[in-house]
Amino acid sequence: MHHEDKAGLNTLLQRIDGLRLGKRRVAVIFVTNRPDALDPAVRRRAALRLSFRRPSDEVRIEMFRQSLAD
Q1: Half-sphere exposure of 35 (CA within 13 A, CB side)
Q2: End-to-end CA distance of the chain
Q3: Mean pLDDT over each residue of the chain, to the nearest integer
Q4: Ramachandran quadrant class, 30 (left: phi over 0; alpha: psi -120 to 50; beta: rest)
Q5: Residue 12 and residue 68: Cα distance in Å, rounded?
Q6: Contacts of 63 (CB under 8 A, 6+ apart)
Q7: pLDDT tens digits for range 10-51
């Protein structure tokens, strides 16, 4: 990992931890198509992990039909 990447990761982790110390409840959402590439320190802070598979051709067609009905 390059120095800039490490610095960015450290800043991200500090900000996440800072949010956890606040009095408000906050949701932080990370979206990636490469979950295995996430740093373990980021993954450890996740309370919930959701995975979505690509929709099938039939599902995509139905989504377009519903979205573009007009």
Answers
A1: 12
A2: 49
A3: 87
A4: beta
A5: 39
A6: 55
A7: 998 998 888 888 888 888 888 888 888 888 998 888 888 898
Per-residue confidence (pLDDT) for residue 16, from 0 to 100: 86
Helices (H), 1-70: 3-21, 40-44, 57-67
Upper half-sphere CA count for residue 16 (Cβ side, 13 Å): 17
CA distance 59 to 32: 21
Q: pLDDT of 6-20, one tens digit each?
A: 898 899 899 888 888
As a whole number of angstroms, the distance between CA 9 and CA 44 comes to 14
The pTM score is 0.58
